[in-house]
Amino acid sequence: MEIDINVDMGESFGRYVLGNDEALMPWVSSANIATGFHAGDPLVMEQSIVWAKKYQVAVGAHVGLNDRQGFGRRQIDISPAELRSDVLYQLGAIQAFLKLHDMKLQHIKPHGILYRMVGEQERYIDTFLDTIEDYDKDLSIMLHTGCEALKRAEKRGLKTAPEILIDLGYDTDGNWILERVKQARSPREVAERALRAVAEHKIDTVDGNWIHVEGVTVCIHGDAPNAVATAAAVHQKLTEAGVQVKALR
């Protein structure tokens, strides 16, 4: 068995530090680096890429809504045309730094409420997929298992990276539950959820049931207060069980 561990990072801004990004790097295989809209800034973006190269971690663009105050977790009624231009703008920003550091962009992952908008809302799904297809068909699209956007991406022949959000709650319908402010979870419990999701393809729900999940990557949120301890526990639990942790490609 093998699995990618991805983490959201690069979300500090100026003198305000959110998360311990370098300390997370040894425990993950892919980094979703904020591209300056919901969080991050140019200095933070480049430093995150430098650390990713140092620790041999693959890089993804963590694109979000232009909503720093709400940390990209508030619904904003943007048009499909705005979605396209905003995504392209953010991809261009991170690609500039990657080019200078001789690194390649592995994937794209929407952040916060944008993840829901492009993954599930009819108004945005095809525009998002059109944008990725026009920009770079080789990018893996990281969204949660079974969402409509991934189904359509697969039909188009685009690369997909279904993910399991092991440090968030799920409802019985398989929907992950958005936290406006990321809460700490027990690292041991998150690690156990990760192994069960990878080995048994199931995860617990907030109402005490179990649902089936499939994924090639598991997510840890870097803005959680105990993100480093959680990432270390997940990595250790998986490797001890014989699961190889590796990037998508």
Automatic annotation (TrEMBL):
Entry-linked Pfam families: LamB_YcsF (PF03746)
Top-rank taxon: Bacteria
InterPro entries: Glyco_hydro/deAcase_b/a-brl (IPR011330), LamB/YcsF/PxpA-like (IPR005501)
Alphabetical list of Gene3D superfamilies matching this protein: Glycoside hydrolase/deacetylase (3.20.20.370)
GO terms for biological process, alphabetical: carbohydrate metabolic process
Identification of the protein by name: UPF0271 protein
